[in-house]
Write a structure and sequence with these properties.
The protein is α/β, with parallel strands linked by helices. Helix content is about 35%, strand content about 15%. The protein has helices spanning about 15-25, 45-50, 65-75, 90-100, 115-125, 165-180, 240-250, 255-265, 270-295, 320-330, 360-375, and strands at about 30, 85-90, 110, 130, 150-155, 185, 210-215, 230-235, 310-315, 330-335, 335, 350-355.
């Protein structure tokens, strides 16, 4: 066999993607992926998009869509214009582009602990090392001469923990990045899924100077199958990201872009978001009741203020791999928490449970099985 890229040895399969094929079987109860509920998808009238979307398009994305997104970001107090917006083929592409821009083999980047497992997959592929951020932002000990080039964070309904940073934490982290010349990479795919009152101003909005990348997605409020996300970036970084996008896929699917444009201009948008939030909040609350019923005092968790996940902490003696395998044998899937830690020594017994996809009847059956396996482990 020909010699292949040395990077391939660092490329491991995503545990969630590996379970996706099994999760779509009707006999499987899946709490594993961040799958939105199918009844939450917006009903598109696609006919108007076809005639305009068949030719090649600009690498940056459709100008009108970029202007609409820039206007949305200004409402969030993030001051940027359409020339700083890049439309992505899903927000996962944004992680790939930023990694290509910053990471060489051995580059150390800062991440939360735990953090989004698919981001870790990309960072590892490019050879990154990791510095785990302390839980208290004020405990960060960077200096001008000793700091990572990039910090990747999910401040709003963090994946997997569901944590939402306070305004003070956001302002403090922005200042720390600016003072130490650290690029902020802020991932914000869940901000629209807010069930309780909490601070959602982007950290990037506090970056009056410095370098930053802010990433959003339409997967959780429209349809993940559209594969549409976007990046807004400070003016020093945007040209590099654009060239990397051109080299990756020329441009994002234009039909999907037109569908998103139609959604952003639709008079039905407000009602769609309102119904989505009401539906998911009810699912969250019902799921919390089922967890209390089935997991009881065998685990601890906090109901998330937004997003799609419960982060469940388990006793130190829990054999996560054994429970995962036995649950899978009984057609129940979840994501073991260890996958979300950059450094394995920081991991503790835990699991991430998605509450948005399964029906309440299925969720009750699945959580009953997990509860039985936890009792066996005691």
């Amino acid at each position: 066999m020909q010699k292949l890229s040395a990077r391939l040895k660092d490329l491991k399969a995503s545990p969630v993607r590996a379970m996706l094929e099994a999760s779509i079987r009707p006999d499987v109860i899946s709490f594993a992926g961040g799958l939105p509920s199918e009844d939450s998808f917006f009903k598109f009238d696609a006919a108007s998009a076809f005639s305009s979307a068949m030719q090649y398009g600009p690498s940056e994305g459709e100008r009108e869509l970029r202007e609409l997104i820039a206007n949305e970001l200004k409402v969030r107090n993030l001051d940027c214009d359409a020339s700083q917006i890049l439309i992505l083929s899903g927000s996962q592409q944004g992680i790939d582009l930023v990694a290509k821009m910053v990471i060489d083999r051995g580059t150390t980047i800062a991440v939360e602990s735990p953090t989004y497992l698919a981001a870790l997959q990309v960072f590892r592929f490019f050879g990154a090392q990791f510095e785990e951020l302390p839980e208290n932002i004020n405990d960060i000990a960077w200096s001008k001469s000793n700091h990572p080039p990039l910090a990747y964070v999910i401040p709003t309904f963090q994946n997997p923990t569901g944590k939402c940073w306070s305004k003070d934490e956001r302002a403090a982290f922005a200042k720390t990045c600016v003072d130490n010349d650290v690029i902020l990479f802020e991932d914000d795919p869940y901000r629209d899924l807010a069930y309780d009152e909490c601070e959602r101003t982007p950290v990037a909005a506090f970056m009056k100077n410095g370098s930053w990348v802010y990433q959003g997605s339409f997967s959780k409020i429209l349809s993940p199958g559209l594969r549409i996300g976007y990046i807004a970036a400070s003016k020093d970084l945007f040209p590099h990201l654009l060239l990397l996008k051109q080299a990756a896929d020329l441009h994002t699917n234009r039909l999907s872009q037109y569908l998103v444009m139609n959604y952003l201009k639709s008079p039905l948008r407000g009602e769609h978001i309102k119904n989505l939030i009401e539906n998911y909040k009810q699912k969250r609350d019902n799921f919390a009741l089922l967890m209390k019923k089935n997991l009881g005092n065998m685990a601890s968790w906090d109901a998330p203020e937004g997003g799609l996940f419960f982060w469940v902490k388990l006793p130190e003696n829990t054999n996560m791999q054994n429970i995962f395998e036995k649950a899978k044998e009984r057609n129940v899937l979840f994501t073991p928490g260890g996958h979300f830690f950059a450094n394995s020594e920081s991991a503790y017994p835990s699991m991430r449970l998605n509450f948005s996809h399964a029906s309440m009847e299925s969720a009750d059956r699945g959580l009953t099985i997990i509860g039985e396996l936890l009792r066996e482990n005691q």
